[in-house]
Amino acid sequence: MDKILQSGSIRSIRYDSIKQELEIQFLYSGIYRYQKVPLVVYEELLKDFSQDSYIEKQIKPNYQAVKILTV
Predict the structure, then answer these.
(1) SS3 14
(2) Helix, strand, or coil here: 59?
(3) Do 26 and 51 contact (CB within 8 A), yes or no?
(4) For residues 1 and 14, is the Cβ–Cβ distance under 8 A?
(5) Which residues contact 14 (CB under 8 A, 6 or more apart)?
(6) How far apart are CA 48 and CA 31, in angstroms?
(7) What are 27-44's pLDDT values in tens digits?
């Protein structure tokens, strides 16, 4: 599932429900893959009014990330 977002710092989000991986392409810092992210968290992210804030408060502190591309 790919989503293009209108956000201050996010270019796109991709979610693999089989692997439970959330991949976020940030405008200025590259692409990060977050591991073991439940589908419900991905769905909440898409529904949240401020995806930037949701990522800072709910994703980054709770899920391990691997940087896969530097801008």
Answers:
(1) strand
(2) helix
(3) no
(4) yes
(5) 1, 2, 3, 22, 23, 24, 25
(6) 21
(7) 888 999 999 999 999 999
